[in-house]
Amino acid sequence: MKLVKTRQELADIVTQWHREGETIGVVPTMGSLHNGHLALIKALDGKATRRIVTIFVNPIQFNNPDDFHLYPRGLDADAAILTETGMVDVLYAPDETQIYPPGFSTRVIVSGLDAMLCGADRPGHFDGVATIVTKLFMQTRADIAAFGEKDFQQLSIIRRMVQDLDLPTTILPVPTVREADQLALSSRNKRLTAAQRARAAHLPASLLTCLAELKAGKNTDACLQTCREELEEAGFTVHYLDLRSGTSLQVAQPSDPAARLFVAASLGDVRLIDNMPLS
């Protein structure tokens, strides 16, 4: 695996790959890698002949400066993990000058899908996500990109952006990877104290109970209210808890075959998200 830190070096590599008829897969990350990221890399098996993992903690997608500064980082450890997999050809780890040079003033905005759920809770977040993903697609010239379903709204926005802008990158969704207690893997989990990590298991457990009750035909509003109360009793601050369509992200009824339960909730200053399909 080659560590690349500049646009020019990356451009030279991907130009040569395309000349040789290679197909390029990319996994964009902010580092602090875990098994969920490795699942994204593995998902490119048979779909790309070359694989790039990007690591860049994107400042413009953080509406809270403290969250940006506290985000876990560790390039050397991440590089060692990727090298050990034997699956990655290039680790692209640019600094901010390679992504946002002086005078940079453009944003990519996906209107509509960005105004709900995490978008309502974190103004401007998805503008930052759409902008950095577009930049990384252009710099890597990827044929295919893998994204996890854990951040389902992000996945939906990127799909919409690729379609609307005619970007030549296929989006590959990958199911959420979970711990033994069903907590969705996330780099933010590393910021949880031992006590918070134990309480965090209430998040997936409460969602699964709520889904079971919805499937049993119980009233949607009552199920959501009970789930919210259970999370609050466990020490969570609930930002949102909604049943939404997995196709439009609009509020859904249990009869919708694409219905998913979406949640964002914090333990202390650590914000966790999850979603699960009803069917």
Automatic annotation (TrEMBL):
Enzyme active site: H37
Compartmental location: Cytoplasm
Family, similarity comment: Belongs to the pantothenate synthetase family.
Function of the protein: Catalyzes the condensation of pantoate with beta-alanine in an ATP-dependent reaction via a pantoyl-adenylate intermediate.
NCBIfam families: panC
InterPro entries, per the entry: Pantoate_ligase (IPR003721), Pantoate_ligase_C (IPR042176), Rossmann-like_a/b/a_fold (IPR014729)
Top-rank taxon, per record: Bacteria
GO cellular-component term (any): cytosol
CDD domains tied to this protein: PanC
GO molecular function terms listed in the Swiss-Prot or TrEMBL record: ATP binding; pantoate-beta-alanine ligase activity
Top class in the EC scheme: ligase
This protein's pathway: Cofactor biosynthesis; (R)-pantothenate biosynthesis; (R)-pantothenate from (R)-pantoate and beta-alanine: step 1/1
Assigned EC number: 6.3.2.1
Pfam families according to UniProt: Pantoate_ligase (PF02569)
Note in the entry: The reaction proceeds by a bi uni uni bi ping pong mechanism.
Name the record gives this protein: Pantothenate synthetase
Keywords: ATP-binding, Cytoplasm, Ligase, Nucleotide-binding, Pantothenate biosynthesis
Reaction equations catalysed: (R)-pantoate + beta-alanine + ATP = (R)-pantothenate + AMP + diphosphate + H(+)
Subunit structure: Homodimer.
Residue positions binding ATP: 30-37, 148-151, 177, 185-188
